[in-house]
Amino acid sequence: MKHQHRIVVLGAGYAGAYVAGNLAHRLSPADTEITVVNAEPDFVQRLRLHELAAGHPVTAPKLADVFAGTGIRLRVARATVVDPERRVVAVADADGGGELGYDTLVYALGSRVADRGVPGVAEHAFDIAGRPSALRLRERLDALDRGEGGKVLVVGDGLTGIEAATEIAEARPGLAVTLIARGELGARLAPGARGHLRRICDRLGITVLEHTSVEAVEATGVRCAGGTVLVSDATVWAAGFVVHPLAAASGLEVTESGQIVVDRTMRSVSHPQVYAVGDSVHAIGDNGRPLPMSCGSAGYTGRQAFEAIVGRLTGREITTVKLVYSGNHIPLGRRDGILQPVDERGQAKPRYVAGRKAALVKEGINRIALWTIWHPTFGLPQRRRRVAAVGDVPVERASA
User: Fold this and answer.
1) Domain ranges across the chain
2) Is the pLDDT reported for residue 393 higher than 70?
3) Would you say residue 392 has pLDDT above 50?
4) Assigned CATH class of 117-184+192-237
5) Angle at 88 between CA 83 and CA 90, to 5 degrees
6) What is the CATH number of domain 5-110+244-327+378-398?
7) Is residue 239 within 8 Å of residue 114, measured between CB atoms?
8) If pLDDT is split at 50, 70 and 90, which confidence band does 383 have?
9) Distance CA 236, CA 158 (A)
10) Does 117-184+192-237 match 5-110+244-327+378-398 at the fold level?
11) What share of the chain in percent tops pLDDT 90?
12) How high does pLDDT run on average in the chain?
């Protein structure tokens, strides 16, 4: 009996689910076996977790339903070890776990909240990096709303912090929200967009503390540099993200931040049977700079990976997908937002879009991102191709 080429995808976020779905629709099931390993049985709309925490309904489709009819095998388990020399992944689940062998591995474990070495973050802070943690924050905010209100501190003035602070303040006007920024609020935005952000914070009653560093999170608040103590009934930690440490522990070549170093086709430079996508990958964009962690980057790196895998396995040419970072889409509550384009250096362009139009565009992006998970091959070839003989190496070409 002919050996099926075993493809294992670690992680079923935007990047992992997108890659798995496309591989299932592009490769013949007679020649390939695709297994997705994910710690949760649901697809998490990470782009909307700040909405979930604030109290809005956000769906979490069952991955079994998302992959129904594709032939993909879903393993609800946590990857604990990647052994690229033996080409196996160790997993842990309710049944004790085991090992999965692979011929091609797609690493898409994404990122999680970064505590920045600040004491008390794990014990006392909430975050919105995952669905369970967002739901815990939602329960806490519900409890405060049922009482006599309370104080919410959001630590971090990046996109996650801004989105969380404005969403919570708009959805729960009975709570006093403070946003703590290490530098100037909206420093990476164009001056006009920065002014719009400040006006929205004022309108929503958000207190902004700039040039403030948090040195410790405590049960009843935070301690800032200089000894200032800020009281809080719920501290939301949104001070950035770090990648899953599994890649660094596996022997794959990674950067100092733990992202997997890849070539232009998202293939590991140290282990060619491994591809990396999404937040897990250190991918150089068309502007010569590393792509930032974002949903857009997940889409571009994901497509490049499955185009390369399909090309190499079927002996066909590999399409080179564009790798670009065009800007940020920042929701400011449900009715406002900012669309901030950037130049090739990643610097904000003077022109921007703000207000209701920006909010509608962002809502559309969220809907399309989820729709694409259900319909991964939209606009792409869908013919299932047979795997070619081992050793066929196609010639790469640029896409039109």
Assistant:
1) 5-110+244-327+378-398, 117-184+192-237
2) no
3) no
4) alpha beta
5) 85
6) 3.50.50.60
7) yes
8) low
9) 13
10) yes
11) 84
12) 92
pTM score of the predicted model:
0.92
Dist CA 246 CA 251 (whole Å): 9
Residue 168 identity: I
The neighbour count for residue 83, using CB atoms within 10 Å, is 13
* C-beta pairs of 349-357 under 8 Å, 24+ apart in sequence: 349/190, 350/190, 350/191, 350/192, 351/190, 352/189, 352/190, 352/192, 352/193, 352/196, 354/192, 354/193, 354/196, 355/196
Torsions phi, psi for 120 (to 5 deg)? 90, -5
Residue 32 has a pLDDT of 94
Residues 6+ apart with CB under 8 A from 321: 300, 303, 304, 307, 399
Q: Which residues pair with 89 in a beta bridge?
A: 82, 100
The Cα–Cα gap between 115 and 235 comes to 13
Q: How far from 221 is each of 115, 150, 151, 187, 228, CA to CA, in Å?
A: 16, 12, 9, 26, 11
